[in-house]
Amino acid sequence: MKPRPSPNYLAGYPTHLIDQVQQLIATDKLGPGLLRKYPRCHEVRTDRALYDYVQELKGRHLRNAEALSKVAFDGKLHVLHKALGLHTTVARVQGVRLKAKREIRIANVFREMPEEFLRMIVVHELAHLKEREHGKAFYQLCQHMEPDYHQLEFDLRAYLSLLEATGKPLWPARQDGKLRAFSALPIPVPHAGSHSDPDL
Ligand SMILES: [Zn+2]
C-alpha cells in the first residue's frame, strides 16, 4: 500500500492541519488514532433504523421543521463527489396542490462508521431543513444539535482521506450483520493530562 495524500476532503481547512493529517496517514498513525477515539461502529443497519434515528434527533431539536417523507441510505451517493448526504425537496402533484416532500439520503459509506460520524451527517442534513446554504445560521444550528459538530466534521473528513488512501474501512460491518468485536482489541489508554489528540 502506498499512502497517498488526498486533500479534497480537507479543502478549506488551514494548511497545517491538512499537512498533519497527511503526515498521520503516511506514517500509519491516523487509523489507530481514530480507532482509539471512536472504538465502535454504530448499529443503524437498515433504512428503517436510520429513519428512526433521524426522527429521534429531529424530534429532539427540530420538532417544528417540515416532516420528512423518506430517509434512506443511498449507494449511489459517491463521497468522492463530496455528496456525503443529500437533502432533496421533491415536488409531487397531489390533486391540485403541489406538495413539497423532504427526503434525507445518507451515503452508504456511513453504514460502517462510528455513531458520532453518523450523527454529524444527520445533523448536517437536518439543519438543511431550515437553512439551505452553508452560512453562519446553518452552522449555528448544527452546533445547537451537536456541540462538537466542527470537530466531528474534521475527524470525519480526516477518515475519508484515510479511506481514499487505503481503501480499507476502519469499522467494517461483517456480512452476517454482526459487529466485529472492537472492544476485544487492545486499545491503549492515553495517560491523563499528558496527551491530546493532534487537532483531530
Ligand atoms: Zn450541506
Automatic annotation (TrEMBL):
<dbReference type="InterPro" id="IPR002725">
    <property type="entry name" value="YgjP-like_metallopeptidase"/>
</dbReference>
<feature type="domain" description="YgjP-like metallopeptidase">
    <location>
        <begin position="99"/>
        <end position="157"/>
    </location>
</feature>
<dbReference type="Pfam" id="PF01863">
    <property type="entry name" value="YgjP-like"/>
</dbReference>
<protein>
    <recommendedName>
        <fullName>YgjP-like metallopeptidase domain-containing protein</fullName>
    </recommendedName>
</protein>
<dbReference type="InterPro" id="IPR053136">
    <property type="entry name" value="UTP_pyrophosphatase-like"/>
</dbReference>
